[in-house]
Each structure stands twice: as structure tokens, then as C-alpha cells.
Amino acid sequence: MSIVLARIDNRLIHGQVLEAWVPYVHADCIVVANDRIAGVTFQRILMEAAVPRGIRVVIATVEEAAQFLAAEERNYRVLLLFADSADALKAYHLGMSFPELNLGNLHGGEGKLRYSCTIALDREDIEILESLEEEGVRIVSQCIPADREQYWRKLVPSGGS
Predict the structure, then answer these.
(1) Quick one: which of 26, 86, 100, 121 has the most CB atoms within 10 Å?
(2) Cα–Cα distance measured from residue 72 to residue 68, given in angstroms and rounded to the nearest whole number
(3) How many angstroms separate the CA atoms of 105 and 22, rounded?
(4) Where residue 73 falls among pLDDT bands split at 50, 70, 90?
(5) Which helix (H) or strand (E) holds 134?
(6) Considering the chain, what is the average pLDDT of its residues?
(7) Separation of first and last alpha carbons in the chain
(8) What does DSSP say about strands 100-105 and 150-151: parallel, antiparallel, or unpaired?
């Protein structure tokens, strides 16, 4: 099992992931690790239906996803998706090993400041990302493979709006 991309993207499985990232990293398995989505059958069915044949899809709680990655014997190239920074930290502490974390889409909301056109963070997000970085995870922002990768800390000091 090889995690070829770990990404935080509020939208989880969507066109940008399927059309840009899956072919770029040659993923043959998509794992969505999110406790809320794992319990919403209709959303799971919609996301699973969007994925082309030949790509395995696992939509599970963060803990179940960690168990899947630890137990699966086939050597999938895994694209791992989180809905938010808290899921990424929980997964990392459950043993999901990803040396790099891609910040894709983190939508705005109450208490969040916008740091780029697709990334809005609150204080908790920043603290979680700092924690992951202290544990050795390299964190970058990159919407699609054609975009220039940007170190996440270069975004934060720019201030939000």
C-alpha cells in the first residue's frame, strides 16, 4: 500500500480529483477518510458512482480507513482524501503515514480567514497543520498538478480577507 497523494479537500471526490490528480499520481485506489461522510449512504453512493471502473473506492471513518490501509495486502497506489485538517491529524496519529499533505480546497466558514482563492483556515486548522509539520509532514498548497506547489506557511502570513 502506497499513499501517493494525501489531500485535504472539502469536496472529497469530485471532478478535479478524478480528472487531474488520479491520472497524475496514477492512483488505483481512492480512500476517503471522514467520519461524517462514512455515515451518509446517499453521498457515499454518489461519490462511488463518479469514480471510473478499475479504481477501488473506500469511503470510511478515519479509524476504518486507517485499518483498511494497515490490513490491505494488495499494493494499491492510494489517493487519500480528508475533508478537513482534524481528519488528517487523526489519521496521522492512527498510523497513516504520509510524508506530504496537499491542501486543495478548504472552504470558508465562521471564524475562517481566506488565505488563497481555495484555502480558508481558522486558528484550529493552523494549529493542526503546525502540529503535523512538527511531526515531519511537509504541507503544500496546490489545486491541480499544473499549478505551482506552494509551501503553506507562505500563505498564512499574507493575511486573510
Answers:
(1) 121
(2) 6
(3) 16
(4) confident
(5) helix 123-134
(6) 94
(7) 40
(8) unpaired
